[in-house]
Specification:
By secondary structure, the protein is α/β, with parallel strands linked by helices. The protein has 26 helices and 29 strands. The strands form seven sheets. The chain has a seven-stranded mixed sheet with strand order 7-6-19-18-17-8-9, covered by helices on one side. The protein has a six-stranded mixed sheet with strand order 25-27-26-29-24-28.
Length: about 775
Amino acid sequence: MTDKKNTDGSDSGIDRRTFLKTSAGAAAAAGVGSAGMAATQEASAQSDTEEGWTASGSCWDCHQLCGQRVKIQDGKATELKGVDGHPRGSAGEGRDGTLCSKGHAQIEKAYDPYRIKEPHVRKNGELKKVSWDEALQEAADLFREFKDEHGPEKLMLMHGYDTDDMWTKLLMNIYGSPNKVGHTTICHGPWSDTWAWMGGVGRPWGDNKNAEYIINWGRNEMESFNGQWQPKGILDAKEKNDATLVTIDPRYTKTAQHSDTWIPIEPRADGALALAMGNVIIEEGLYDEEFVDNWTYGFEEYRQAVADKTPEWAEDETGVDAETIRKTAIGFAEAAPNCHISIWTGITNAGNGHKTAQNIHALNGLVGNLDRPGGHRFFKATVDLADPYGEAGVEFPANHEDVPQVLSDYEEYPFHHVRGLSYTVLPEAVQNGDATGLFAYWANPLKNSATQEWFDALDELDMIVAIDAYWNGMTRRADVVLPESSQLEKPMFGAGGPGSYSQRGWVTGSKAAIEPQWNTKPGFDILKGLSQKMGYGNYVPWDSKEEKINDALSGMGLTLDELDEKSFVFGDEYGYESWKDGGFNTATGKFEFVLDNVEAYVKAAEQAGVSTAPEYIPAGEFGQMPDDEYPLEFTDTFVEQISRGGDQTLDHSKELLAERWGLEHKDYRGNYLLINPEDADPRGIEDGNMVTVESPAGSISLMAHVTEGIKPGYVTTSWGWGEGSITPDEEGGNSMMLHSADQIEPVIGMADRHIKVEVTNGGEQ
């Protein structure tokens, strides 16, 4: 393993050991101090007197804006640390702010020689370095020619963790494309859609620090989180509230390590367990009768749905003994409303994910934990931000609303009633000629579904314009590549509710900590330049992103300079039980166990042959099942170490993941296949062997980690590696090389990432 060099052979300017520094772990940081609610109107970053530290910086690597402080030496960022009391990066007022391994990798990202350093335009089949003026003009010309030849309805708009919303204004409102594709069908769709339909809130988050009983269900919240306030809140709850933590997962995760109970359930049988828990809670009379009677819809139908779903029935389906099911249900209900169930991709990435999510969400409604202390909090921003476009007198047309979305005509897919677009069917849309162009902003579809089919689709597109910081399998295929600066090189700003302050909204932001490296630009500058070349310059009146942010902050009487100094500022206080004043944002104004009031869902469910009420859909009904040729079940997972900001597997992240599995002594820095000894031994596989994982769609090579911490018959690896990555020869395997585009969760359109595979000893390194 050697230090990276710039492509011209010069040193990158940062010692590799700097990248491998990290803060004290979240567990240690969260185990001390108070987690109480802040009582002041404002909180500021700690006052550092050490030379070289600045208040600038907000981490965007997982889209959560944890506050950070940056040490500058000779004009370079050399160290990072968290901001004390920050709502996303600490456990609350007076608590240490920290950064996770992704956050600390930002220095590596800023100076990484593998970044895209110059704008590029494809000439005679090859990407060539050009000036910014030429690249932006070429992109504008391509968009204009594409619209004339194909129409805006054939342009796909794909985004990851973009840092300025102007691209939607330019390419949807003005240009007219209706085809925006985000995270819903690659990450959280079944979870967030069903929450929105049942409770009127797209993403409620657990009020961890006030909870007495927490179930992490198919979620590894100690390792894959929405800001560090989440794992720190769990540890606070365990220490201060004597809270019970239960993890339901086929893997023995970091969260399971901290749990009172680990329930290694059979993969994709979670819906049966949820119904059985509902059966116990109702039969034992432990549900919140007052809340159910006055604030829910469809309870009698739900009661009927769980009436025969006893723990004994569920034991056969889930592999979890009936007594454990009964004990978990009773413990959860008796702690109500100071309890919640947190789910994520472990539930959503399956063919039966939407029904599983509905069954689990029903338990939260059953015990009445919604927007109550320790329950599922309906967080609010409570900050008076102004609309920067309104402040600048900018009004946009809505041209995309008048353009037919061709992709919504895929009537064989039930999810077309819910949404027209899904990552999984876009390659098919390209093959059919319905999509012929792509604008990608920090998006790499090669990591998100059916990689081989995406390779073919990208090669067939007439136009690809990409904004990104890294070369990868997608940007290498683009016609115009516009290199964006990394997080430390541009101002960051956001307002939020979810965080360590349960009753305070907040705003956080910072100026750029360092100058843009090489010939890159912040996203705002790229989009402003593109808008001018496209003839839309009058819609972007600001000279800089700072000016735009200042217009937004004017509603609070605040400037970015002031916010940068403080790091974060609170909004007003707000209480719990918001539904008592305005009800739930649903058709009935109540929490809905049954979804027969959601027209789009009713149509999709009918076509898919499922009920609008909670029900158990066995794994084999939708999706693949292991068989004689492919006897193991595979899926991929998220881990803390991998930067989702642009799918980069950086050296810092690779090193930490190798240490995570005790394989740092191996000359390999890719992802690892977790496999149980019962499956490894008959195949002659030992810990640290290279293996080949094969599915009906393709194969990958990666290193095996043999562990008891995963159920027999089930194997998994981390997402975001391998083919299509930064370097063509990157070690590890792209899990989506095993996926085919016909593996779709039918009602939401999610990529079904549960795949039948065989694993053999031996593979390329």
